[in-house]
Amino acid sequence: MSLDMSSSQKASDLISHARSVVEQAQHALNTSLSYIKSLCINESGRLSGSKLDEYQLVSYELAYSSAEIAAANTMCNYATQIREAKGDQDNAYLEEEIALMFCAEAVQNTRSRLSARQNEFGLSTEQFSTAFETDNTVKFCQEYQQTSKLVELGNFMLDQDGRTADYLLDEDKEIMRESFQRFASDVVMPKAEHIHRDDLMIPDEILKPLVEMGCFGLSIPEKYDGLLVDGKEDNLGMIVVTEELSRGSLAAAGSLITRPEILSRALLAGGTEEQKQHWLPKLAWAEPFCAVAITEPDFGSDVAGMKLKAEKVDGGWVLNGAKTWCTFGGKAGVLLTLARTNPEPGLGHKGLSMFLVEKPSSDGHEFRHELERGGVISGKAIPTIGYRGMHSFDVFFDNVFVPDSHLLGGEAGLGKGFYYTMAGFSGGRIQTAARANGVMQAAYEKAISYSKERKVFGQRLGNYQLTLVKLARMASLMTASRQFTYSVGRLMDEGKGQMEASLVKLFACKSSEWLTREAMQIHGGMGYAEESAVSRYWIDARVLSIFEGAEETLALKVIARSLIENAA
Amino acid sequence: MSLDMSSSQKASDLISHARSVVEQAQHALNTSLSYIKSLCINESGRLSGSKLDEYQLVSYELAYSSAEIAAANTMCNYATQIREAKGDQDNAYLEEEIALMFCAEAVQNTRSRLSARQNEFGLSTEQFSTAFETDNTVKFCQEYQQTSKLVELGNFMLDQDGRTADYLLDEDKEIMRESFQRFASDVVMPKAEHIHRDDLMIPDEILKPLVEMGCFGLSIPEKYDGLLVDGKEDNLGMIVVTEELSRGSLAAAGSLITRPEILSRALLAGGTEEQKQHWLPKLAWAEPFCAVAITEPDFGSDVAGMKLKAEKVDGGWVLNGAKTWCTFGGKAGVLLTLARTNPEPGLGHKGLSMFLVEKPSSDGHEFRHELERGGVISGKAIPTIGYRGMHSFDVFFDNVFVPDSHLLGGEAGLGKGFYYTMAGFSGGRIQTAARANGVMQAAYEKAISYSKERKVFGQRLGNYQLTLVKLARMASLMTASRQFTYSVGRLMDEGKGQMEASLVKLFACKSSEWLTREAMQIHGGMGYAEESAVSRYWIDARVLSIFEGAEETLALKVIARSLIENAA
Asked: Hey, are the CB atoms on B147 and A545 less than 8 Å from each other?
């Protein structure tokens, strides 16, 4: 699996070249981040949120460029690892070619963004030139964005039947990957269209085997009956499984792990030992299924403002209010519910606590349960254009009684709901990146197969240069997104990588929008038909930039804020 | 309606500045087009299609950049016309500010595209510099892409309740526009969601008034009972009506005019006087509705390869074969059908003729009619993700007898089917641009209203810089697309503008994808809900780059080919 190199340079030298080019771009970003920091520091030397809001456009562009350049860095490492793993040879490996192309495009994109308002980014002509206009950089970018290179890669990928660059996983993970890939192909894919078009609940034929395969216990330690080696994290495993299931269907399989993961993390972070022992083994084997009731109708990504009220009564709490976008809320037998236990105004997120609210499981688009313990919980699925299969509910709490034992962390957990939310969602971003990668892989496979089958103007689609260029860019973008995700997963396994998880979420989700759009375009009119899977991939991918941290919130409030705060 | 100018320069001087910057970009494009031409000329001095195929990527980029720069030129003219119409004043008019911003962005985008593979575009460093790196250009682009300018415009638009820049229509067209705008708001919009979600046929409450308003006779001369002043074209009128109806709904109103227009144009181009007198008055008042059966399952934009067979029999022809994507084919009482009347291989499009095939009208998703004259015609709607309301059918012709009188042009029309197809579709591209403009306007209005209503992190969405920037770019892109469309419509009324119609189709449709995506993003989670109109606008807009000349075919086979052929 190697491409002929047009250059006689050694591949490792080329990667060094790429590194130096990427480094220069990173340097420009750093300069700009420092500049914005200098404008937003208030008198006490701290970053002012309101001042930062005056620089949202440049902040957004810096966040996105940082994500792209971080991905480019990952690709350089990946290329190095490939050569280490596969041994030295004269020709470049496919993965090295992809890395070079990706770096060239990432730097070119960053250059374009910064050049549009160079002065606002605080870059002098000289600084900009040093970063992007040296012979070293210009030559590199021109060479690795050459049409001929893209065409060569496109042709190569076309002959691979949708097989892509090496995933570079160790043997354990590779076995895991293959088994979930097979499950996705054999079980999920044949059912996905029907589930989407008829807006059905995911059927037992998918749910049951996944429970048996241990999917719901991936983030639960062995001592609580889960699959996680005690005392270790396995983000990479969760990523690999999520990606493969999302290749089958984002909605009908790829998002099932999200909710037990959130609950497990929240329980591990804040639960009493008794709560852990009670809940974790149940969650690990989906007895019951679970869901998350955090978002409220008036508050999306803005957790601190939540209003659902919990009032203390004898032996427990009574909950009143509404939640929304509670995905899988019908099927779930327990809802992780964020509630305001202290109504004092001004407390903000410090007045919030977390409850485990039990309810009967049901399959339809609506439910209404009079609870044994008191109160009524009801829900109505919000019809959405895609991401169907789990149903996302508006949920109404009407005097719902929750015993003291179900307050997360017991009395010590009072006021810590926001913290537990953060702990629960800490894997959400990287997982969403993995979901995007799975959707991309599925769309990419369809783009490849259609390019081979379909004839236009007397030639198969895949003979045309523009098709080959699209396929090459898809392969490059998808590989970068996947490897970036894996690398962040590995970082997270070491207890690091929260910022990187945000970067890769931003990057992967936008990439999946572009890739699914192009895969659809390759299908022509058929791409717009419901029977073509690409139409569903395109619609499903669209949700990724909206949920788990909307693109803008993520870019501005999380990424840019932190990058600027930590700038020199 | 004027913005404060940050510059003390006179607005007319600024527009001159913009013109000179845009001209330089055009000059670079011309240089590049000539260069590609020099590479693709064969020995006989003619452009070689197969050589041109080796430059598809740069051809695509040149086509898109040409469209953007042509739009920028239009915006300069628009700014001049605004000042002429409204009189001189010290401050810049809103429309002038929008024009300046649009020009800056168009030049910046073109620069970015060309810089990625400058050598492949055949631009020397010096040529590139002259076009994009002079002080004149750099200063202009930086100044009019400034965040503060975008924010100022965004705020201004936010206060306008979705009202946009001046349409600059004459009184007649403005009255026409307002009446269809009202109809779209009052009658179409309230029904659009239901039609989409339940995939219904457009109801009589929409169809009947539109027939009465003369919609179906817009391209039919008065002497044939239509609304067109004899001997004149009125593309602009058709554009204005189409845009306003598409604002109501692309699928449930905005595309109704397309089919009678195609039939009228084909009949006017090729029909015998008897055929014109028989059919045109009927079509003008939708008695019957009509549809177009051109595309075949194996041939999308590739008309010359069509296979549906017409065999000569006594008194007529017998048709056998299949058509696809026959939109409105169920409701239609007559299908304009392209068939192969001469089976001789190698004749290509010269073996094709056009028939008017009568059939009963029906409302469902399927039909099957045994025809009085002989044969069976049947159809099945292809479920699509959007563009619902008219239903697009696979149509099967099983020994369908068509009398000689229904061969378009009579015996003289034999072999001219391809020519009549082209004549019929000559208005399709500009009309599709108008449809894109209508969808953009609708999405834009929702983006504005949601930005005013919704609060996030304690502030209304419209207070945030990033929202304002999005709204400003939406306003700028949409205004450019609309004015570009109008200007091409006026050109077409003078019998010119076919190339420009392709440029504006390419530009408007891609713009509508971006704009609807951003409008959706502004809505956060609600943007993904079916009850939010923006989710439908996003899905509907997606079809625009696929039909009426798929983006790639249009860019490569029509635009780039012709631009390169005509390059110096």
From this structure: no
DSSP label at residue A362: -
The DSSP H or E segment spanning B495 is: none
Task: Report pLDDT for B5.
Answer: 46
Distance CA B306, CA B339 (A): 7
- Establish whether the linkage from the previous residue to A360 is cis, with ω within 30° of 0: no
Mean pLDDT along residues A127-134:
97
> Which residues of A participate in catalysis according to the annotation?
548
CA distance A105 to chain B (A): 8
Which of chain A's residues have a Cβ under 8 Å away from the Cβ of B393?
A: none
CB B60 within 8 A of CB B163: no
Q: State the smallest CA–CA distance between residue A172 and chain B in angstroms.
A: 37
Q: With cut-offs at 50, 70 and 90, classify the pLDDT of residue A3.
A: low
CA distance B164 to B477: 11
Pairing of strands A366-370, A376-381: antiparallel
Place of tokens 């050109």: B491
Tell me which H or E stretch contains A255. Answer: none
Low-confidence ranges of chain B (pLDDT < 50): 1-2, 5-8
Neighbours of B8 (CB within 10 A): 6
Q: Give the chain B residue nearest A550 (alpha carbons).
A: B524
B46 contact partners, CB below 8 Å, separation of at least 6: none
Ranges of beta strands (E only) in B285-381 are: 290-293, 309-313, 316-327, 334-340, 352-358, 366-370, 376-381
Could you give the CA distance from residue A105 to residue A98 in angstroms, rounded to a whole number? 11
Residue A170 burial (10 A CB sphere; 0-12, 13-18, 19+): exposed
The residues of B annotated with a catalytic role in the active site are 548
Cβ of A535 within 8 Å of Cβ of B197? The answer is: no
Calculate what percentage of chain A has a pLDDT beyond 70.
97
What pLDDT does residue A162 have?
A: 63
Looking at residue A9, its pLDDT comes to 66
DSSP letter (8 states) at residue A271 = -
Q: What are the structure tokens assigned to A129, written together?
A: 């030139």
Rounded to a whole number, what is the distance in angstroms from the first to the last CA of chain B?
43
Mean pLDDT of chain A: 95
Compute how many other C-beta atoms are within 10 angstroms of the C-beta atom of residue B166. Answer: 18
Q: What is the structure's pLDDT at A219?
A: 93
Query: Residue B298 has what pLDDT?
Result: 79
Write out chain A residues lying below 8 Å of B465, CB-based: 53-57
Lowest mean pLDDT among A182-186, A245-249, A411-415, B456-460: B456-460
DSSP A361: -
Written as six digits, the tokens of B238 are 């058709």
The answer, yes or no, to whether residue A8 has pLDDT greater than 60, is no
- Total residues belonging to chain B: 568
pTM for the model: 0.97
Give me the helices (H) in B426-553, please.
Answer: 428-453, 465-493, 498-522, 533-542, 551-553
CA distance readout (Å), B401 to B95, B311, B312, B317: 57, 9, 10, 6
Calpha distance A522→A21 (Å, rounded): 33
- Name the β-bridge partners of A392: A327
Q: Give the residue from B457, B518, B443, B455 showing the smallest Cα distance to A553.
A: B457
Task: Classify strands B290-293 and B334-340 as parallel, antiparallel or unpaired.
Answer: parallel
Tell whether the model's pLDDT for residue A6 goes beyond 80.
Answer: no
CA distance B239 to B169: 12
Helix pair angle (A11-40, A135-145), 10° resolution? 120
Give the CA radius of gyration of chain B: 24
pLDDT at A5 over 70: no
